[in-house]
Amino acid sequence: MAWLYLVLAGAAEIVWMVTLKFSDGFSRLGPSLATVATMAVSMALLSLALRDIPMGNAYAIWTGIGAVGIAVIGIVFFDEPRMALRLVCIGLIVAGMVGLKLSSA
């Protein structure tokens, strides 16, 4: 169950990052409230995951899910660069997360 919490926490991190972009520097109420709410959800789920997953692994995977997710969303929906080096680096983050998962019992 801890790994499910961690994946959901990472997904919430992706959502709050997108809503943060739409908040326009916290000047738009709806997206700003959504950002704060999904930040809280992400932290709550991360705290549940930390009951069973080593702190270093959980944090690295949580941030990795967010980083990879938001990079992919940026490429697909916000026309961010699709350079080969960028894609390789995203792949390396995924490889690191897989390695950390495999190193957690």
Helices, strands, pairings?
Elements: H1 2-22, H2 29-49, H3 55-77, H4 84-102
Helix pairs in contact: 1-2, 1-3, 3-4
Written account of the structure:
The model has no long low-confidence stretch (mean pLDDT 96). The chain has one domain (2-102). It is mostly helical. The two termini are 13 Å apart. The protein contains 4 helices and no strands.
Shape by Cα distribution: flat
Mean pLDDT score, rounded? 96
Run of helices and strands: HHHH
Spans of at least 5 consecutive residues with low confidence: none
> Which range best describes the helical content: under 10%, 10-25%, 25-40%, 40-55%, 55-70% or over 70%?
over 70%
- Tell me the total number of β-strands: 0
Describe the structure using short key phrases:
105 residues; mainly alpha; 4 helices; flat
What is the compact description of this entry?
This protein is mainly α and 105 residues long. The protein has helices at 2-22, 29-49, 55-77, 84-102.
